[in-house]
Amino acid sequence: MSALPQRNHEATLRQAIEQEMESDGLELPLLPSGAMQILELCQSPDSSAAALSTAVHRDPALAAHVLRVANSTAYAGSSPVVSLQQAIGRLGQRTIAEIVVAVSVKGAVFDLPEFRSELEGLWKHAAAAGAWAREIARHRRRSVDAALLCGLLQNVGMPVLLKSLTIQARALGGIPKEKLWSLAEEYHPAAGSRLARLWGLPDQVTEAILYHHEFDTAPTRGDEARMVALSDQLSTHLLAGTIETPEAGEHPSTADLNLYPDDLAAILETAPDVLRFVETMR
């Protein structure tokens, strides 16, 4: 018996994804319980560096990563950090929360054998986008609290959808990886926004993820969505080695963000810092 035409396979997969989204049947990974506890501590005004250090210590891999970040060129001070309490004092609770989310997301979401190399590239792009979003927010004198998370998680729906699509494609057979990737790209904003909401992340993060490709339609967080859209473009140019070309900073969002050529030039000058952050988050 001959295989079904490829277009029928695509229609079947598209229908399955839409049904999963409508019925909340899409399998969404949970952050590790330890990461959730650390996030709660970071968001509490009553938590102490000692309590946060104790919580991070329970996850040796996470503790090692926090110390590595604290001693990286992006954050290093005049002397090396040798304890978690020192790291928390240097980085602050908000940065610790960002590191916890980044490390946990990479381990819980960006790990799919069938797309390992592609997701490694997507993670590098995510780290760069998070760093760019933070630089854009800082340059505009806006809160940078959630900017990194908005940029970092803009494409988090991709691996979630790829996992679901890969499982369903096995039953159909003969579906190119490129087609699965294309379908995931089409639906990833909605999936990523749901995942961020499940994790209890701030509203500006969930909305920026949902509308970063259609920022003019964002109901309340248009600026965040615009910053994420711009960070997405800057990351693409940075990793392609074209960040110094005139096209790098040309984006429809720049006018609404009140970014002028001198502003963009100043942001682009931080490219070495962004690259160092990408290396730190590997």
Keywords:
Hypothetical protein af1432; globular
User: Runs with pLDDT <50, length 5+?
Assistant: none
Element-by-element helix/strand order: HHHHHHHHHHHHHHH
Tally the beta strands. 0
Mean pLDDT: 87
- The share of residues in extended strands comes to under 5%
**Counting H and I runs of at least 4 residues, what is the number of helices?**
15
What's the domain count?
2
Task: Give the second-level CATH assignment, the architecture of the largest domain.
Answer: Orthogonal Bundle
Could you walk me through the main structural features you see in this protein, from its secondary elements to its overall organization?
The protein is mainly α and 282 residues long. It folds into 2 domains: 31-108, no CATH class; 113-282, Hypothetical protein af1432. It has 15 helices and no strands. The chain has helices at residues 6-22, 33-43, 49-57, 60-70, 84-91, 93-108, 116-139, 147-152, 157-172, 177-198, 203-211, 222-240, 253-256, 261-268, 271-280. Helix 3 (49-57) packs across helix 5. It starts with 5 loop residues before the first helix and ends with a helix. The mean pLDDT is 87.
